């Protein structure tokens, strides 16, 4: 049984392809073979990583890519699931990055714009249950200690929950496609003393603005949190981006959307 399981999860490594891409292909292969069926739940990230003998961060990036391709979906508090009806172009989805390599600072600037907007939208669109879940995810982040893997997992879960609460499908898809490219850098950042504690405290500020239904405050708190990380990037060639200065009435009035929107 163990031998059969090992064979199922064995990766065909290729020096010319990123590891998360190879993992994503393997998961898709397992779906096609019926190991994971439409509507079914995948093994958790730790188990997949153990079976494939890779780091959990690489598995997470692969899962995020498959989510962007609408092959998988993540359900709050439950895990990763195979979509019941994959889109017809799932085998050859359009790529936002199209195989190109961008500077970390390029990706991070886009991330700041997307997450600031997501926090603003979530402040008026998220329901009480979603905000409570976001708060709990930050509690888990605070309790992660010095484990970089757990810090990364809880950080990604916190930010991802806010993005999903924006209820803007295009924003969610774009964010999902770029955020995986930043996983390795984010993992390394949590090895710096003091980053984890500061991260949790700044998350807490975002949550307070979400609870108050303050879109401008939520955007400013998220931008401030991300800009602190951005300012420490090694590949910034110009003056650091400043996203915190704006007039108090600069925030637009977002339209409310129900959960089906």
Automatic annotation (TrEMBL):
Domain HTH gntR-type positions: 17-85
Keywords of this entry: DNA-binding, Transcription, Transcription regulation
Lineage, highest ranks first: Bacteria, Bacillati, Actinomycetota, Actinomycetes, Pseudonocardiales
Source species: Pseudonocardia aurantiaca
Region (Disordered): 238-261
Gene3D superfamilies per record: GntR ligand-binding domain-like (1.20.120.530), Winged helix-like DNA-binding domain superfamily/Winged helix DNA-binding domain (1.10.10.10)
Domain of life (superkingdom): Bacteria
Protein name: FadR/GntR family transcriptional regulator
One Pfam family hit: FCD
